[in-house]
Amino acid sequence: MAGYDVIFHFLGTGLIEVIRLVPICVVLSLIAGALIGIVQTVRIPVVNQLISVYLVFMRGVPPLLLLLVVFFVAGFESARLSAVFTLSIYHAAYIAEIFRGGIQAIPLGQFEAADTLALRFHRKMIDVIIPQVWRAILPALTGQYIILIKDTALVSAIGVMEILYNARQAMQVVYKPILIYAIVGLLFYILCFSLERLSAYFERHLQTMQGVQ
Amino acid sequence: MNTIVEFDRVTKRFGDNVVIDDLSVPFYEGETHVVCGRSGAGKSTLIRCINFLETIEEGCIRFKGTVVDKKNVRSIRKRVAMVFQNFNLFPHLSVIDNLTLGPVRSLGIPRREAEDQAMHFLKQVGLEDKRQAHPYQLSGGQKQRVAIVRSLAMKPDLILFDEPTSALDPEMIGEVLEVMKKLSLDGRSMIVVTHEMGFAREAADRISFMSDGKLVETQAPKAFFSNPLHDSTRQFLSQIL
Lengths: 213, 241
Hints:
The structure holds two protein chains of two kinds. Chain A is mostly helical. Chain A contains eight helices and no strands.
């Protein structure tokens, strides 16, 4: 059965690249998205207009185009860095909206109770509001990160050697497209499914921690 | 008698709707001042202006001589506590964490000290065994008693009560009023918006009747109930008593 070792070698390399990319993008987009989402709820005139320009732009442009533009314009030292940056700011836009919605869904009384205790804005957010936001937004957040995992398939366009890139490389050696793409699909499925399980675990954990309202 | 809060020609509007109409009134230190009136009369708005949850359009509110405005808002909120109709406990925190959040984060009291002090108050309302419970495990009356303790834990100079029993089942109203009466007897400064006339009669030092954004009359309980000066007060009392 010559060729399987080649296939697994290439796809394994690609998988490792994806596993390296995704967590960094998750962390960066979560931080940026949360901050942007929070700032949006405060309604600072000029800042808010800038944010809406950013959101409209990110949501109106295909991620592949964005990857190419950033790659050729921004001049990061490596394609990987460029990919991480692009995927992060792209998904941060969606995550910002998820956060904004989550924050606005918290009853006004929670904000008022925190204000009445003379909490500063950041303490109100960190201690009172955001902990309650998690549970509400976790399903939407998971959905967004599943899309992020799938979007990593795009970064091969700028030469980052993720799974799909390696699949094409493997095919130069062993021409078994159906088998190779089937394995690629399976790998993505396993990644996404694991994330879903992880999210379900967190959801249960948050429920026991906060009690069922 | 010292004034704790002073309204000086205060007007508050929501759009075209005048909720507080050129109101001037003093509230005194150490007193329990009950504000009653029909719904929509502006009672809640009145007390929410004191801790800047609402902003006023005209006039001036002073808390112990300090003007209530954006600049002074935190220093005033550190000294003015509020109890809400819907409790507004933090559902993700245990009772003890609900009680220590303000003292630790706003007043900078060490956690141990804040916990000891919270337990002291919790005992007074008979809920020391609920320290680790979460709000969803409490009854309405227990929630409101915890909320009152949360306000006490801030060591406030003044406590505002915004219809504290209106969201409670009838059998739980008594336990909350009992706690409030105790606080009143302790000589705390309290402004209480409520429909509980029994409480007003027993615990209030002064009762005001609010109508159309004005306090149409303010009297000691005895006179308020036996000899209301104003027609609208008389009508209101005859309807609810």
